[in-house]
UniProtKB/TrEMBL annotation:
Residues 414-589 form the Rab-GAP TBC domain. It comes from the Eukaryota. This is TBC1 domain family member 31. One of its GO terms (molecular function) is molecular adaptor activity. It comes from Mythimna separata.
Length: 828
């Protein structure tokens, strides 16, 4: 397809065939719900079938209404654009032109849609009936997020804006009229015309609202509200006389455009609203454009309808399937849509929503009227006050609704310690399969973790027992968990928190491994390449200079990401910080844990950039470093909401799936089967080696004798050189060498405990190391040993018989064998 600035595709001769193909756009019928209870008249979702037969959901990203022609346009992440005609009850798909970032219908011009492209940052004018491109406007240097038209009688302009610049286009010949450039730290959050088109209003990231006069683009007002921090959105009433401002802080400010003064300040925390990501007025009939209903999309993805006159929440929209990512209100308030986090689009009829609100209010009023004075509507007879256990659990589930818990979390920042285990159980929806858990317990301690106390220094016997039991149950449930070295360090903090309830501990950790550790075991026992690549892409998107610093030092994602993940953040956070983080991790989608890793790196940027060596950075991610937990968590939420869809982890992760309730747990299959087969093959080879000609004791003794003989060959040569100038006969020199050898060996055997210990360590390292334990020797220990060997060579104690020496050596080797015969001989 040929795209040229200010060029009409009708003039291209070779485009005739394409145009004819696009003319034949097939339309399909749609059916709206006549009287929906929840106000949803239609739900959109785009599902395609891959070549392998699997179904894949494509997420919708944007939508816009055209009230004058009763149409709706929606675009998905694959670049497909769907047009819905509510008057004819038809819908159709336009030919794909590529991923887009914003949509807008052209007012007073039938069937024309402006599409902001994601790649070249251009604006294409599309015919909604055929999909033909009639005009292309280039000029932006970043993806366009905002498109709007002014309704001014004198100057009718088009506004397009990205986070870094805004451009005003003169509509008569589509030329640039005005360009607004921003600087880092003050990028554009939102920009629009006032309803009458008199003013251009912009909200910036530095919590500033700037207002320009549209006719001459002169600044007339700058608003810096002291109470409102982290501003996210602004909205106008239809008459343009009032403006609402809100952000991640819990304050909402109404501002008068007539007097340039604040009308009122509303504390949203009274309504359990923890900050706002987006706000918009919902116009209603006969309200004179004053618009008393304000829609607020909270930071926990719930849409609230606030009556600004009575200051009451009249309705809450929280779909069961998913949270709300963004919403769009039609200009006249006839419809509004919600784009869900899972990618579906719910289309609401405002009149149906308001009717349901009124009906609910009437029911409440009638209930209050029926109450007698001094009694409660919720009072029950005494014989009904004793509830069964199932009824109590059902009420607890209602109270522990994830949406309510998220509101508590966003308001207070953490869950109360007293109820944390109960809340985590509710969030993870653990099944409490006592019979299935007992079957795993009956299998006993898994061989892989029989001597786990040798790897960890755990002073509490209760904690050690809980850790062994948990790791054994996980290994019996899935063989993979018996060979993953990082697993004990990953589950240990969970043991400390939940060890009083072993069943909850196991099911919580199993749920975390199944959902929040997706793709971790894809290449086991090698590092999870896919997960590390996702983390690196997110870091590159949001902080390229920090990633460049890591590359310059030679640090990969295995250091700044994998080290954190394998310990579940327990090495870099304090106990209280760890609990707060996992409150948020378990309350969000599985992708949140990777966002937390990137957030930790970005928040610690200044400290990381001062470290110039690989060793320093390696140590940094193995120690607790001071961190502002609020900034850390806030940045994680920003990354979760603002990371592009093409690199977002949710594109590769499945939604949360709880453990199944029943007599057994579902099988964990997220790992390559070759991992366990390899492990079992190694164990078979180890068993077969025991049936060979020599036992381990015989091989050890044989190797040690060979080592002593090699040393003996070098020692006489040294003494020979020392005595070469004495002029003695050859027989005399040989006799002296034999005496010296016996003296040296006797000296080694008669040394004190210190030297005997060093000898044992040397024997262990040189002989038993390949099959048993891991020891590291530093240079100072080697120098010390070499020095003592030299002293032993030159010492001349009284000689003993060679047979006594050999017998002592065999006893020493047998002692070593007995000491390490119970050690873990499994391959690592």
């Amino acid at each position: 397809m040929f795209l040229g600035s200010y060029k009409n595709i009708d003039t291209i001769s070779n485009g005739t065939r394409q145009e004819r193909e696009r003319e034949a756009v097939e339309k399909f019928d749609i059916k709206l719900k006549s009287k929906p209870k929840d106000g949803v008249v239609l739900q959109l979702h785009h599902t395609v079938r891959d070549s392998n037969g699997e179904c894949r959901r494509i997420r919708f990203s944007s939508g816009v209404f055209d009230d004058s022609h009763d149409k709706l346009a929606c675009a998905d992440n694959a670049g497909n654009i769907f047009i819905l005609d509510f008057s004819d009850l038809k819908f159709w798909k336009l030919p794909g032109t590529g991923a887009c970032t914003a949509l807008q219908f052209v007012p007073n011009k039938q069937d024309t849609l402006i599409v902001a492209m994601a790649k070249k940052y251009e604006m294409n004018f599309l015919d909604t009936e055929t999909g033909r491109i009639s005009l292309t406007l280039p000029g932006h240097t970043a993806p366009v997020r905002h498109i709007s038209f002014s309704n001014h009688v004198k100057t009718n302009n088009l506004l397009t804006a990205s986070p870094v610049e805004a451009i005003l286009w003169e509509l008569r010949n589509y030329t640039k009229y005005f360009t607004l450039n921003t600087y880092l730290g003050a990028q554009i959050q939102q920009i629009m015309f006032s309803p009458a088109g008199d003013y251009l209003v912009a909200c910036f990231q530095n919590d500033t609202v700037q207002i320009w006069k549209h006719e001459n683009m002169k600044s007339v007002k700058q608003i810096i509200p002291s109470e409102l921090k982290h501003m996210k959105s602004i909205a106008f009433t239809m008459n343009g006389r009032a403006m609402a401002m809100a952000g991640l802080a819990n304050m909402l400010i109404l501002f008068s455009m007539d007097t340039w003064k604040a009308l009122k300040s509303i504390n949203m925390s009274k309504y359990n609203i923890s900050g706002a990501h987006q706000i918009a007025f919902i116009p209603q009939l006969f309200d004179g454009g004053a618009n008393k209903i304000l829609a607020i999309l909270s930071s926990d993805c719930i849409l609230y309808l606030l009556d600004l006159e009575s200051l009451n929440i009249i309705h809450i929209i929280h779909p069961e399937s998913s949270g709300i990512r963004k919403f769009v209100v039609s200009p006249t308030g006839k419809y509004f849509l919600c784009i869900l986090q899972l990618g579906e689009v719910n289309i609401y009829n405002c009149s149906f929503v308001m009717d349901s609100v009124q009906n609910c209010q009437n029911v409440v009023v009638e209930t209050m009227k029926k109450e007698t004075p001094g009694t409660s509507a919720f009072k029950v007879p005494s014989e009904q006050q004793t509830h069964s256990k199932s009824q109590i659990e059902q009420k607890m589930r209602v109270c522990m609704d994830s949406a309510r818990l998220r509101r508590i979390l966003m308001q207070y920042g953490e869950y109360p310690d007293k109820f944390r285990s109960i809340i985590w159980r509710s969030l993870l929806d653990t099944p409490r399969n006592k019979a299935a858990y007992s079957a795993l317990i009956d299998k006993g301690i898994h061989p892989a973790y029989k001597d786990i106390e040798k790897q960890f220094t755990i002073h509490s016997a209760v904690t050690l027992k809980s850790l062994k039991r948990l790791l054994s149950c996980l290994s019996h449930w899935c063989p993979l968990f018996g060979v993953m070295k990082f697993l004990p360090g990953f589950v240990f903090p969970f043991v400390k928190v939940l060890q009083k309830d072993p069943l909850l501990l196991f099911e919580s950790v199993a749920s975390v491994l199944c959902n929040y550790c997706q793709l971790w075991f894809e290449y086991a026992p090698f590092p999870p390449i896919s997960v590390l690549a996702i983390v690196e892409n997110i870091l590159a998107e949001h902080d390229q200079p920090l990633l460049n610093h890591f590359c310059d030092v030679g640090v990969t994602s295995q250091t700044y990401a994998l080290k954190i993940l394998e310990t579940a953040f327990s090495e870099v956070l304090t106990c209280s910080e760890w609990l707060i983080l996992w409150d948020h991790v378990l309350s969000n989608e599985p992708a949140f844990i990777l966002m937390a890793v990137v957030s930790y790196n970005i928040v610690q940027r200044n400290a990381l950039k001062r470290l110039k060596s690989h060793e320093q950075l390696e140590n940094f991610f193995h120690m607790q470093n001071p961190i502002d937990k609020k900034t850390f968590l806030k940045k994680a939420y920003v990354l979760l909401n603002e990371t592009p869809d093409d690199i977002h982890p949710r594109r590769f992760f499945k939604s949360y799936v709880a453990l199944e309730k029943g007599g057994c747990y579902q099988q964990f299959t997220g790992y390559p089967k070759a991992t366990i087969c390899l492990k079992l093959a190694k164990k078979d080879r180890r068993k077969n080696s025991k049936t060979e000609k020599y036992t381990l004791k015989e091989l050890t003794t044989k190797t040690q004798e060979k080592e002593i003989n090699n040393r003996a060959k070098h020692e006489p040569s040294d003494h020979k050189s020392e005595n070469s100038d004495e002029g003695s006969s050859q027989e005399t020199r040989i006799e002296r060498h034999r005496k010296a050898k016996r003296k040296t060996r006797d000296t080694v055997l008669n040394r004190g405990d210190c030297y005997a210990k060093e000898t044992r360590e040397e024997l262990i390292e040189s002989i038993i190391y390949p099959a048993t334990i891991h020891l590291q020797r530093n240079k100072s220990a080697e120098e010390k040993t070499n020095k003592k060997d030299k002293e032993a060579k030159h010492s001349r104690p009284k000689t003993k018989k060679k047979e006594h020496k050999t017998e002592s050596l065999e006893k020493e080797v047998e002692k070593l064998i007995r000491t390490y015969t119970n050690s873990d001989l499994s391959d690592t």
